[in-house]
Specification:
Four copies of one chain form a homotetramer.
Chain A: H1 3-9, H2 29-34, E1 39-40, H3 46-52, H4 64-67, H5 69-82, E2 86-88, H6 107-125, E3 128-133, H7 137-141, H8 145-161, E4 166-172, H9 175-186, E5 192-196, H10 209-218, E6 223-227, H11 232-248, E7 254-258, H12 289-301, E8 306-307, H13 315-324, H14 326-329, H15 344-351, H16 363-368, H17 389-395
Helix pairs in contact in A: 5-6, 5-13, 8-9, 10-11, 12-13
Chain lengths: 396, 396, 396, 396
């Protein structure tokens, strides 16, 4: 969609008030969705805290929730200020990935620290506390439901003890394990969101997005969709196919999408973590806030009502999503007090005769801008990600 | 320089200890430089805090030092952890740029808040507190030394009252004003660093980098160099010419460089803030930590001993610089405990048979990687920045 | 497929003899295909002669067959030398596109001139004379079979009078008109090849490639496939789907592919003539001879046995195809006497110590080379060709 | 220069007559230049005939002048039709580069064949016959003037015997050898043009373009400039510096420029033949006719009055140059009868409602178009050509 087309269908910078937090009544996500709200998730913890110096690349374990709680809290606070309605606990349970050698904390200690932080933010900012469980290591070696449940139950325990508001069953690559996980999650009588880390080519067994969506819905998840691994616009393509599958079966769960904050058109079915640039040279691929807003608009247009981000999505992206959907959400986030959300400051500079800001005070300017990369030695796509003829024919 | 060439001249992952802070003896930068130390500056406050939601784009004023001191402090703490030896006060004095309308703080209040934060970090982490003054608005309209001094004196006052350790006379575009500023700064009997925001094409009057350097040195600045506006490698080109000018006159001040954290080969003499992508679509141009390390290595090789960053340089870049120069600096920064500084974690993953990490455990891999942009619709350079035939012939 | 993968499955520079022409026995294409031959078509006349100054851009009419027959003949001769087994008459019949105003030749005069040239080359070089008919203007306004047949019959008349060896029913965008055209062409008792100018998204009514192929085969065409409008590798994707459709119905006509000689991954279903660069700035998209050879190899692997080119394919591309398939074809084309077909000359230069030729004497070098564009201001894809969200998600 | 700027200074499609050949009076180039004419050279023979199948890559020897004279003649004819005022003999003398093994022609036979062809074209089209000599192999091993003269004299002999109209002393990389060659060439009492294959970084000894130009002029060459190895716009930069050198010494020879037809901003001082893509993957770098016209306009503006091309420049480029300078040259070339030189055909198509041609009927459209490359896997510049820090800082 071009800038001029968007102009026609979108309100331009409505005069919005700033949203007030209302901690007492906001924690039930299903009621809010039923009421027609667009709920914003938060962005990445692991990837962002790695850059800030509190998470070790390779391990990506959340011991910072205990070691540097003020850093985790500062990030959660950023997201809430930016408009996130959800604060996800910085717990990442997996038996397989150990913490760095010099960390002597138990999984329980770390996860309790994470819950403490999320609950503190929720109390102050009125956010929904969400806790996640992810695909197990055991499933990939033997597909045993009982063992999978056992491993996932360990992860859920601390979340339930802390009485979180929403369980997110996320980052599952296979629909069978996802179905088992949903079954378990539902047993705790909490709202359950289920998101798979799959792209348009489907799950690890090749089950297509349409079928994955239908099976997640039939398994009883209240909210379904995708998270991580794929770029925002490829994730929307997956979501489009999920929705088509659901529509065909007359199923209507709430939809959710939390993609990567990186442009990865070349990732094929592997996903962005297989890119040669991962994890230390991803900057040129990071999306801009303009692209984040476009993602939010297209997601909304597609009927998605829980919109957030995963690795690479930072607070200025969440804020841009909140600003893009300010009318639909009834107001601007607190953080917009410090953002040029209506471009009035840039416009004023241009009007004052500063040539380099001429044009920059309009939403159309930014929506139609294709950013340059500053990198004449770089190619757009990575050749190693396109090994097969069938892919080269499309993407070359 | 290719990866294999670098390999020959660089030590590979020496086993370094972690640096201990030693607050009592470290604050005199000139003594440390005289002792042969490589001193690291910190990165951007304005640009980074804008993304985090605490500084308003367009204004770029530092009221967060009072309004959200914990966010400013968290960032200063990040830099110190990452290896920065300097903590710069988040004061940005200029009569011309007003704070946003809803801010009712005086310049003095803001700057005092900024000093408080910097001094708190310095106390805890042993960093050198630096305060900066920048080019005035009055110089561009009338070149009156007395008025320039008056305006700069206001900015210096609070810094002196707080007894900072280093005055940075920075972001000056014209050598005449710079000479006046150095004269004033020296009157306070503090170490004085002087950095101009110029590229290889020279100052606003066309005075070449060689001459600017000589005049800064003759004006008495202890440390001289460039900051902001240009990308790291273009800034090194400017520094190379400054050094050549100084060498020709047998002048030997300490050298300093704090460039942008963005690749901007197309900026010509205007600088990166004139790019169409500024300020909301700069992500694809941001440098990687690998490029930050290369910058630090080349800067060191050129004889620069105060190395840091400006807009776009974040804490993972500073950490990468500190790790690159770990041998020269006598150890790794505290933050490296949470970084895969020797790539051993990635290497282990590759060794464990995870194909996507094969090769990634080596420094050569990352040094020779040219990152893809993920953006087939984007060009490398911006045509509007190359209006003249002479430039097109080189850069097209 | 990477260079190293190709190496495994491909013979490397077999010692081939040069092919001798054998005019007496070669003109029946169906017998040759039945005998297992790979038949090469020729390349573009219109586009190449436009560059050479004999065809007017915009009109693209073949009056040069009369006005400058030596230029047309020289090009046909080039193709035959390069290995083309087919010489196509430079006749382009369409009632709608008039010749330039200053041309006072009748369609019959032009087409007779074209036949004379093709027959002269065939006599000298032993090539198969092919004549083509293309989609009519009348079909797009009213779908009347009788009128379509009438218009196509005019085009076929002169070809039949000249007793050509093969009728190519080509550049049809709609399967219905194609079926009518095949029916008409078959009535002349000549071998009939039928190629559509469609991509993976199907014909002008949205009929998919699988179905188009089946319907062409059932209509009786001896050879079927695609020509023009799409780039070589996208065309192979279309061919792959055509073959899948045919296989599913157990149909086995001979397959043919004559794609554009330009990389146009961004053309969507419109085809390359809708690109902003068409017709005067297509150079950066032109394929290399290396890519032409890769196309020929992949086409052969897919079972295609009539392989040639359309606009943008020039004689060095045809020669590269012939050299790539030298073993399968039983020898090298005459033109290879003047090509470094086995890279021995480049190898020798490298061996003699000329650094810039080191490595260039190997097939792997060229197969794995990704050519640079020399154009930092250019993007890879054209944004205006990707207007819809669904496409942007894949290609952005 | 942007499209809109060009619009201001350029006439738009003047109504020009077509130029009539006037064979009797046109052969003295110096008289024509004195009369204020802009003289067009022709384009590449070697590179173009290699693609067409008559010259062997690696060898690049001109035996086609005897083996396939009709192919050489056809190309020379194309250039003359396109507007070239000069027909250069397809003689390429060098003792070092032998012809392919299977060629049993003497250098004298080949060169006589080449002269025959050029004279035939000259007779028919009224072009100036030019013959060239190039740098010797002996100079690079020992700088002996007598031996250099001996080798060059062999090359000149046949040209003088054929009484050519202009000697071009071209493709010299060192100013000393160039001075010797000019001295020799002048001894034959013919007009002498002298062009060096150098870029902005100067000759093989590092002598700068300014000094090279002055020394060529002082050596007595009537026409001086550059040819080959560098792209059109980089060559103009070299010419700009040559002119500055000449102006400073108050020297005013005629200026000439015959660059590569490829964009090679990354070649540094080595030149385009050192690119990894040379010779088989240069297509993406080839200039468009639009760029050829821009080159001609800028060259004219700079005072260059002999404008032509070298490797990669084909007849549509020469025609575009002739059309761009039609007013200055007094008319359009013969070949423009078959080119859409005033874009009227494209305009008509757009006016008839064909959306894809909307806008394409204007010169501004084409002048402001930045062509896409169609190659998401390709980078703009080649990293191996930029090995040094100083270059990376400018070009990265």
């Amino acid at each position: 969609m071009t800038g001029s087309q968007l102009q026609m269908i979108l309100p331009k910078f409505p005069s919005c008030s700033y949203l007030e937090n209302n901690p007492s009544s906001k924690q039930n996500i299903l009621e809010r969705l039923e009421g027609g709200e667009v709920v914003l998730g938060d962005g990445s913890y692991c990837a962002t805290l790695e850059k800030r110096g509190y998470v070790k690349a390779g391990h990506y374990t959340p011991e910072a929730s205990v070691e540097n709680p003020e850093a985790v809290e500062a990030l959660a606070y950023e997201y809430a200020r930016a408009g996130a309605d959800i604060t996800q606990t910085f717990t990442y349970y997996s038996r397989d990935v150990g913490t760095p050698d010099d960390v002597n904390l138990t999984c329980g200690e770390i996860n309790q620290g994470a819950c403490n932080i999320a609950k503190k933010i929720a109390k102050e900012k009125g956010t929904i506390v969400a806790g996640g469980i992810v695909q197990t290591g055991v499933f990939s070696t033997k597909r045993d439901k009982k063992e999978v449940h056992e491993e996932l139950r360990e992860g859920l325990e601390v979340l339930i003890q802390n009485d979180i508001d929403l369980i997110i069953v996320e980052f599952f690559g296979n629909i069978i394990e996802m179905e088992w996980a949903i079954e378990l999650a539902l047993s705790y009588n909490k709202p359950v969101a289920a998101t798979m880390c799959i792209g348009p080519k489907g799950d690890t067994d090749g089950v297509q997005p349409e079928e994955c969506a239908v099976r997640m819905a039939r398994a009883g998840a209240h909210i379904i969709g995708t998270n991580c691994k794929f770029d925002p616009f490829i994730s929307l393509e997956t979501m489009r196919r999920m929705k088509a599958g659901l529509d065909a079966e007359n199923l209507h769960p709430y939809l959710m999408c939390q993609p990567l904050g990186f442009r990865t058109p070349d990732v094929n079915h592997f996903g962005g973590f297989h890119l040669p640039e991962f994890p230390f040279a991803m900057e040129p691929r990071q999306i801009t806030r303009i692209e984040a807003a476009q993602f939010a608009r297209e997601a909304y247009h597609l009927g998605i009502r829980v919109i957030g981000g995963c690795c690479g999505i930072e607070s200025h992206h969440i804020r841009a999503m909140a600003e893009e959907l300010a009318v639909e959400r009834g107001g601007l986030p607190e953080g917009s007090r410090k953002s040029d959300h209506d471009l009035s400051t840039l416009k004023k500079k241009g009007d004052m005769g500063r040539d380099e800001f001429k044009m920059k005070g309009s939403k159309e300017y930014w929506q139609s801008l294709i950013p340059c990369t500053g990198r004449p030695l770089s190619s757009a796509l990575n050749r190693t990600m396109n090994p097969e003829v069938v892919d080269r024919s499309v993407l070359n």
